[in-house]
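Example 3.2
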Amino acid sequence: MTFNNTSSSFADLYSDTDYSSLTWFEQQWVAWYVWIDNPIIATGLMSFLLHEIVYFGRSIPWIIIDAIPYFRRWKLQATKIPTPQEQWECTRQVLFAHFTIELPTIWLFHPLAESIGMSTYQVPLPNLKTMAPQVFFFFFFEDLFHWAAHRALHTPLLYKHIHKIHHKYSAPFGLAAEYAHPAEVLILGTGTLMGPLMYCALTRNFHIVTMYVWITLRLFQAIDAHSGYDFPWSLQHIVPFWSGAEHHDFHHMSFTNNFSTSFRWWDRIFGTDTNYLKYRERINQAKGRSTEERLAIERQLLEQVEREGIEAERDVVRNGKQD
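Structure, written as tokens:
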């Protein structure tokens, strides 16, 4: 079956495509572009809808988990559960950033990427063997970019005027992954987009469906890292160099350590996890104690880390006022 008999002008691009040779997903891909009949609108709309559906779709399970006391045993800061008011305030800020920063950025990304060789409406779509190394490169590049940009956001001037918003919650939750100043959304989002743009410019072999896979995985990573939960089956217990919620939760408490996002190696290489390693060592030493003693030690350590984090933040804000 082909699209030769359709009335859509855009379908002419598929006139030589054998519809029956496509997978079900590829057929839906073609049908979407034919239905919209404008590749710019079709790609832009699909890209933004994907982002919103994945972001809030992945956040909702964490909202439900926060409401169920049974899961507190795996909550990293068990006494700090976000209230409905906090979640609503967070959602409002996130939506503001999504529509003022991410919507235009998403809409402009694909024309720019197409101009340097990215495919959008074309079929067939790339297979997993093609996409996997590309997505790994994006994770690797973004993590290094994020580490450097995040470190910069903790300098007095940038922290006071930009990054302070994101650190409102010393115990983060899933929805707070993109709770940030619009400028921060743009700065850190650059690392998410730059990897694909570089790869596309160098290889001319990149399809936007790979971008969608990358964005989906990146959003899952960011939301899970802010979830505040460390389950026995969490990925960091399977992949040792994966950061996860336990790694990033410490950053929100201590303020001074763990600046990377997906992997642990940049913090280890650049020495920005020393306090975290000391904290983990003391936690591990307490495992031989009775349950009551271990829980008491963990509470004391959490309180100590949080006090030190509050003081470290005050120092940065104080220095920012002097700039």
